């Protein structure tokens, strides 16, 4: 007989996500549903606003990928009105995005996803001397530099255990049989977890050099940037470069080493060798290195074919809401998209899990829409960026991917797994850390003859405009679409990475990446479904980007009245 397992909410992510799976008699998942239980609605808020406020308002979607929506919304306005942007401003925007990627990926692996691989309880029984020797296998100069550092990390966590206040280490599935690290390997990973708390602060400071603050920088405006004094200050330039190199050093000596260690320990573990059941992958171009070159190029690959890639055709994008809590009678292109809430509660059924009714898959069950590319579900994210660029022979990406495959002994096909998705994010981070300063050097060179950071834009109130901004955010392909009429936003749609990955079944019965990734996964212990967390966390879910605020019981949380003169 089949049985249901419900994880609600899944923690260590941004926002609220419910995963429900149906198991067969052997505890193998044969069906899965991803439901986000919050409503975003920012597209509705944008209507009637001045386009010049779009970036600042839209970045409030999320405080994790903090500048992504800011930049993407600004680009959409600039595309619509054909605003000109100086080269220096483009470089600074890329530097903000570059350091955001470094920050976000480090936080994701260590703080949000790492404990799916690292058994903290096991680390407490490790021998620090043996762990120091083990660390040398994965880096010639490991971040966990010696027995003393490892012992200090172990004692710090043991101190938390002794107080009974476990903080981030509470309520986990420690001891699950699908953990594969030895105690010493767990201690290495744990020490890097603690170090990552310091490194993410330095990465955030890198962003703040150009953004003014973090989270939610405020230096990007339609037509350029406002941080000209920082750009012209040699001390600020040197501060940024030193902090960047400090973060890059952690990527090389800790993050890369830990994924190599994971590949060795988990390389034959069934729980991480599936989890990639959608065949199409898409990314946008990203990070301007010089006037003629981006670090990453855009493209689409189909059927997991690493021998070729297609150009992205944005006319093929549409959002389906058959099983999402919105009202629309057919898939909509984002330019013409609507955001009309149509919430229906889960229908009471005979099967109750955790005092909650299970999902009625025949109806609507998520606030996330289902984006499709030419009718097909698509995975986006760092893995998509790496495989699309690998397929196109990107001269900076290809050697890094080949180096990883050689070091681990894994075939290229192993990239299309949960392990591969986790490795793909590290490889994306490694590529950025090694080449991102080319943007900085290009800007410094350009400053010898050009200090321009802003060109004043203009919006004709008698004209109608439409535009799109597309960037590669930390979680993947992000696009903002708007129409402008009477110098005000007439329509706005944000199609975000987690929407691509987390959307429910569409009207043609096609399953999105989250739900597809879980089918076929065996659970060692359905009461401790660590395998589900490991797969879903590998996507780095950000439900806040997909949806915003609703109470589970359907009660109104707050009511706000805005005076007409303030609109």
Automatic annotation (TrEMBL):
Record's keyword terms, sorted: Metal-binding, Nickel, Oxidoreductase
SUPFAM superfamilies cross-referenced by the UniProt entry: HydB/Nqo4-like
Short name of any one Pfam family annotated for the protein: NiFeSe_Hases
Compartments (UniProt record): Cell envelope
Organism domain of life: Bacteria
Location (main, coarse): other
Cofactor: Ni(2+)
Family: Belongs to the [NiFe]/[NiFeSe] hydrogenase large subunit family.
Function: This enzyme recycles the H(2) produced by nitrogenase to increase the production of ATP and to protect nitrogenase against inhibition or damage by O(2) under carbon- or phosphate-limited conditions.
Subunit description: Heterodimer of a large and a small subunit.
Annotated protein name in UniProt: Uptake hydrogenase large subunit
């Amino acid at each position: 007989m089949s049985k249901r397992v419900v994880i609600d909410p899944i923690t260590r992510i941004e926002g609220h996500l419910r995963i429900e799976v149906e198991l067969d008699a052997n505890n193998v998942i044969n069906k899965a549903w991803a439901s986000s239980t919050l409503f975003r609605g920012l597209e509705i808020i944008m209507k009637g606003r001045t386009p010049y406020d779009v970036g600042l308002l839209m970045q409030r979607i999320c405080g994790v990928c903090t500048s992504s929506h800011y930049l993407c919304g600004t680009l959409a306005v600039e595309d619509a009105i054909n605003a000109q942007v100086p080269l220096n401003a483009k470089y600074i925007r890329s530097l903000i995005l570059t350091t955001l990627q470094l920050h976000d990926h480090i936080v994701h692996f260590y703080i949000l996803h790492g404990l799916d691989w690292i058994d903290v309880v096991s680390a407490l029984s490790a021998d620090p001397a043996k762990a120091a020797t083990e660390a040398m296998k994965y880096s010639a100069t490991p971040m966990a530099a010696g027995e003393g550092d490892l012992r200090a990390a172990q004692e710090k966590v043991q101190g938390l255990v002794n107080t009974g206040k476990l903080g981030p280490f509470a309520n986990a599935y420690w001891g699950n049989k699908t953990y594969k690290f030895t105690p010493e390997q767990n201690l290495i990973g744990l020490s890097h977890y603690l170090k990552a708390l310091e490194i993410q602060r330095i990465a955030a400071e890198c962003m703040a050099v150009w953004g003014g603050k973090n989270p939610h920088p405020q230096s990007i405006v339609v037509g350029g940037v406002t941080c000209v004094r920082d750009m012209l200050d040699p001390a600020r330039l040197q501060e940024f470069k030193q902090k960047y190199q400090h973060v890059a050093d952690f990527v090389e000596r800790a993050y890369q080493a830990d994924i190599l260690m994971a590949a060795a320990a988990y390389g034959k573990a069934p729980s991480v060798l599936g989890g990639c059941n959608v065949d199409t992958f898409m990314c946008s171009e990203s990070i301007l290195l010089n006037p003629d070159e981006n670090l990453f190029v855009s493209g689409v690959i189909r059927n997991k074919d690493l021998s070729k890639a297609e150009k992205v055709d944005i006319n093929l994008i549409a959002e389906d809401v058959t099983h999402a809590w919105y009202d629309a009678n057919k898939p909509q292109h984002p330019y013409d998209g609507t955001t009309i809430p149509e919430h229906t509660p889960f229908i009471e059924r005979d099967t109750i899990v955790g005092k909650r009714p299970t999902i009625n898959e025949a109806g609507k069950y998520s606030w996330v829409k289902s984006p499709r590319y030419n009718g097909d579900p698509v995975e986006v994210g760092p893995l998509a960026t790496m495989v699309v660029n690998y397929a196109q022979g990107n001269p900076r990406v290809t050697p890094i991917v080949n180096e990883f495959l050689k070091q681990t002994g894994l075939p290229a096909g192993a990239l299309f797994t949960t392990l591969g998705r986790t490795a793909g994010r590290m490889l994306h981070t490694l590529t950025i850390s090694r080449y991102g300063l080319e943007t900085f050097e290009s800007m410094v060179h350009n400053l010898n003859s050009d200090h321009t950071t802003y060109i004043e834009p203009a919006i004709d109130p008698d004209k109608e405009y439409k535009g799109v901004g597309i960037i590669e955010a930390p979680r993947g392909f992000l696009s903002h679409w708007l129409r402008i009429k009477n110098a005000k936003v007439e329509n706005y749609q944000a199609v975000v990475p987690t929407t691509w990955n987390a959307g429910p079944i569409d009207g043609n019965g096609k399953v999105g990446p989250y739900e597809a990734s879980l089918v076929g996964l065996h659970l060692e212990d359905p009461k401790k479904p660590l395998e589900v967390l490991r797969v879903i966390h590998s996507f780095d879910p950000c439900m806040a980007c997909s949806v915003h605020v609703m109470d589970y019981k359907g009660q109104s949380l707050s009511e706000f009245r805005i005076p007409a003169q303030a609109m």
